[in-house]
Structure of Glutamate-1-semialdehyde 2,1-aminomutase:
Amino acid sequence: MTTSAELFDRASRHIPGGVNSPVRAFKGLHRPPIFMERAQGAYLFDVEGNRYVDYVGSWGPMITGHADQDVLAAVRARLDNGLSFGTPTEIETTMADLICEMIPSMEMVRMTSSGTEATMSAIRLARGYTGRDKIVKFEGNYHGHSDSLLVKAGSGALTHGEPSSPGVPASLAEHTVTLSFNDPEGVQACFDEIGDQVACIIVEPVAGNMNCIPPQPEFLETLRRVCNEHGSVLIFDEVMTGFRVALGGAQAHYNVTPDLTCLGKIVGGGMPVGAFGGKRAIMEQISPLGPIYHAGTLSGNPLAMAAGVTLLNKLQVPGFHDALAQRVDTLRFGLQERADAAGVPMITQSAGGMFGVFFTAQSRVDNFAQATACDPEMFRRFFSAMLDHGVYLAPSAFEAGFMSSAHTAEDIQLTLDAAEKAFALMAS
Ligand code: PMP
């Protein structure tokens, strides 16, 4: 039997760090990442034959569980027609219609091949549309790895200690203004000073790349108001929250409407897909209608569209998201009970189908400073113990957890039993 350790050794020879995305590395965990062989429903199966209840869900897309039979059948049905044509196909329109129907603030939409491309293109569009260079983002929010957005970023950039990446020209980074998440006064002060130079605000409406931090009342509303007052474009990066926090995304859940929305993950059903869209007047500035360039050889790839359209249709079953949030609550409250009983200082937070676990004595975590003040060693011990008991969590304290509709009551109970053992170990 080949082990993960052997595969990681081999991988490390020709792949930097042995991984194709740094969030997959087990940074500071003193063990090699686990190589998976297959997945089904709520489970991942590794190359050594171990099964894990998975709360990563391929970092979000697998909201109905892994290897969803309907999604696979839709891809299979198109496979023999060919993989890509580089011409328009009907299913791209089906996808666009579906997105615009499910998220009404999106009057027009363009497909991309990743979330990074979606946010990068939305930023360019906002800059081109307003004729301004400055963008506002929030500390610990992650919007992919394009240059303007790798300034004080979250996710792997934070986990690996490089929130502002070398290689981003200072002359570009100086146009990115970074503010504190959940601080409406800070936003107001910034816009009082430079509002008329700001092309856009880009925000994760629920921060999911510094653990899971929901917006506080008035935060998103303030963003909407200052953008209206100063002619800036409000961009919600719903790559993670889209179709997860609610059917219509975080914007439906919190009732704040952005000008542009970025999507990824669920919209591709596990295939490489992103999308950005919004107000018609802005979107009509994109080439070939307007002068602002956006393109992609594989954008709107028919197999990827088939997977995404099938998954989005499955989410429209009434009550889907309520049931998902209930599962999250069962998990959260069960964890809290067990941590309290063991005397481990821990809190949880959630929004719809995403959640976070923080090792802290604070009663809530609202921003980057509070998220990074949590105990990293406690997280590492929790992660390792959970893994040893068959539960796969994101290998970083700065990532959200993802629930799927394939997680059964038994899966959640197994997770809580594992947590009880983990907490006992951590308390000792
Ligand atoms: N925005 C957000 C909110 C994300 O969580 C991510 C990825 N985790 C991205 C953008 C980038 O997406 P991708 O990894 O597909 O480029």
Remarks:
- The pocket of 4'-deoxy-4'-aminopyridoxal-5'-phosphate is lined by residues 59, 114-116, 119, 142-144, 155, 204, 208-209, 237, 239-240, 264, 274 (CB under 6 Å).
- The mean pLDDT is 97.
- The chain has two domains: 4-67+318-427, 69-314.
